[in-house]
């Protein structure tokens, strides 16, 4: 049967625990954990979802023989301090949310495969029992105030939204093997490492992080790139990035990064199929290979030394296909082509962009480079 069994008491839990395989889902009723403990005995496989929520009495959940679980959904269990599934190897979508007493969870040697993993508003300081999995469909990890280090062993991932976590000390985030992703959103990280990242189908977004630098040395194309509100960021490097080409919102936005005075790490960028928006205290912009910006371009800087001449000439040379706007000496630079995904300080784990951007690509230019430098680039 693929129906749902509701566990009302310890006897119901023992009945499931006497099976090798339980076909269906298991819903734990409030008050089912006798003495604060729920033990699912010797069951090895549950084909559906194990769901338990809204019970302030449960302190321990044990299912140490369980190897395969169709899904796990534990929410609003305020006293839960121990989650023991010491044999778990595979799990479908997994949600651990609003678990105020949960400092860790035991999955034995670790899960190898998981669906979408959501860990929100817990006390966990270590998620290696799930982060070492070689296959995870998606990630949503935020509001875990004691989580300071994560290393994922993934080659690919769907939508990954990480942060904010640990607002006091920040999070060290490592994806040493990641090659491809649908979208990546990082917030409030102290360091971010993606040394082998090759492509991101939709948005790569860095919002409100504490990083001083970020490099993606092998990233070749991305749907949209948004770098906003990172106050310590002074260096960006995307030396292999050629195309920003989402069909929906191919934005290149770099905004409100207080220490980022030079945007020079885009040596290979040739085409942006949407808007380009740079704002902040920017002295220099260099895009040596750009030939096409399909949408609008905006540069809004507080710098008193930035020369807008080359930016304004991009439209007349048909590099920028939409409108262009360049403003220097601006006391409050904010950009004009849209926010590309929202502010960096918010708690949302969404990576969506707020405005539909037009296509766009641009050539290389820098502060003080005159028209002769531009003509040499184009011809």
Polypeptide structure, described:
By secondary structure, this protein is mainly beta. It contains 4 helices and 30 strands. It has helices at residues 10-17, 128-131, 309-316, 371-378, and strands at 4-7, 21-22, 25-28, 37-39, 45-53, 60-62, 68-75, 82-84, 90-91, 94-99, 113-122, 135-142, 149-151, 156-162, 171-174, 180-187, 189-193, 199-207, 213-215, 221-228, 235-237, 243-244, 252-255, 262-263, 271-272, 276-280, 284-285, 292-293, 297-301, 324-327. β11, α2 and β12 (135-142) form a beta-alpha-beta unit. The longest helix is centred in the N-terminal third of the chain and has 8 residues, at 10-17.
Largest sheet: 20 strands, parallel
Helix share bin: under 10%
Number of helices: 4
Poorly predicted sequence stretches spanning 5 or more consecutive residues: 336-379
Structural class of the helix and strand makeup? Answer: mainly beta
Distance between termini? 71 Å
Quick recap:
The protein is mainly beta. It has helices at residues 10-17, 128-131, 309-316, 371-378; strands spanning 4-7, 21-22, 25-28, 37-39, 45-53, 60-62, 68-75, 82-84, 90-91, 94-99, 113-122, 135-142, 149-151, 156-162, 171-174, 180-187, 189-193, 199-207, 213-215, 221-228, 235-237, 243-244, 252-255, 262-263, 271-272, 276-280, 284-285, 292-293, 297-301, 324-327.
Question: What are the SSEs and their pairings?
Answer:
Layout: E1 4-7, H1 10-17, E2 21-22, E3 25-28, E4 37-39, E5 45-53, E6 60-62, E7 68-75, E8 82-84, E9 90-91, E10 94-99, E11 113-122, H2 128-131, E12 135-142, E13 149-151, E14 156-162, E15 171-174, E16 180-187, E17 189-193, E18 199-207, E19 213-215, E20 221-228, E21 235-237, E22 243-244, E23 252-255, E24 262-263, E25 271-272, E26 276-280, E27 284-285, E28 292-293, E29 297-301, H3 309-316, E30 324-327, H4 371-378
Parallel strand pairs: 1-3, 2-5, 3-5, 4-6, 5-7, 6-8, 7-9, 7-10, 9-11, 10-11, 11-12, 12-14, 13-15, 14-16, 15-17, 16-18, 18-20, 19-21, 20-22, 20-23, 22-25, 23-26, 24-27, 25-28, 26-29, 29-30
């Amino acid at each position: 049967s693929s129906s749902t069994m509701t566990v009302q008491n310890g006897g119901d839990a023992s009945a499931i625990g006497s099976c090798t395989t339980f076909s269906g889902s298991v819903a734990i009723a409030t008050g089912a954990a006798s003495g604060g403990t729920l033990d699912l005995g010797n069951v090895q496989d549950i084909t559906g979802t194990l769901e338990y929520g809204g019970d302030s009495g449960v302190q321990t959940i044990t299912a140490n023989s369980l190897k395969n679980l169709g899904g796990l959904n534990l929410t609003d269990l305020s006293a839960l301090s121990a989650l023991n599934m010491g044999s778990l190897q595979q799990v479908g979508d997994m949600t651990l949310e609003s678990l105020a007493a949960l400092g860790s969870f035991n999955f034995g040697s670790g899960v190898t495969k998981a669906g979408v993993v959501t860990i929100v508003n817990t006390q966990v300081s270590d998620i290696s029992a799930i982060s070492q999995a070689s296959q995870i469909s998606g990630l949503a990890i935020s509001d875990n105030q004691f989580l300071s280090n994560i290393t994922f062993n993934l080659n690919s991932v769907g939508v990954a939204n990480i942060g904010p976590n640990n607002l006091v000390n920040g999070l060290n985030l490592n994806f040493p093997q990641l090659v491809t992703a649908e979208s990546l959103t990082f917030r409030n990280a102290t360091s971010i490492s993606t040394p082998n990242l090759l492509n991101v189908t939709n948005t790569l977004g860095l919002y409100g992080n504490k990083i001083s630098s970020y490099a993606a040395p092998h990233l070749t194309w991305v749907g949209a790139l948004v770098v906003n509100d990172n106050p310590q960021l002074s260096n960006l490097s995307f030396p292999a990035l050629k195309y920003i080409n989402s069909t929906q919102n191919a934005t290149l936005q770099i905004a409100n990064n207080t220490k980022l005075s030079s945007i020079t790490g885009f040596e290979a960028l040739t085409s942006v199929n949407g808007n380009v928006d740079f704002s902040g205290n920017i002295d220099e912009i260099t895009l040596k290979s750009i030939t096409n910006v399909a949408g609008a371009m905006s540069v809004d800087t507080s710098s008193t030394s930035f020369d807008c001449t080359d930016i304004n000439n991009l439209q007349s040379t048909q590099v920028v296909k939409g409108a262009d706007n360049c403003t220097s000496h601006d006391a409050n630079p904010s950009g004009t082509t849209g926010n590309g995904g929202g502010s960096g300080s918010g708690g949302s784990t969404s990576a969506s962009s707020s405005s539909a951007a037009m296509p766009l690509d641009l050539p290389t230019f820098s502060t003080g480079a005159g028209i002769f430098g531009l003509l040499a680039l184009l011809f």
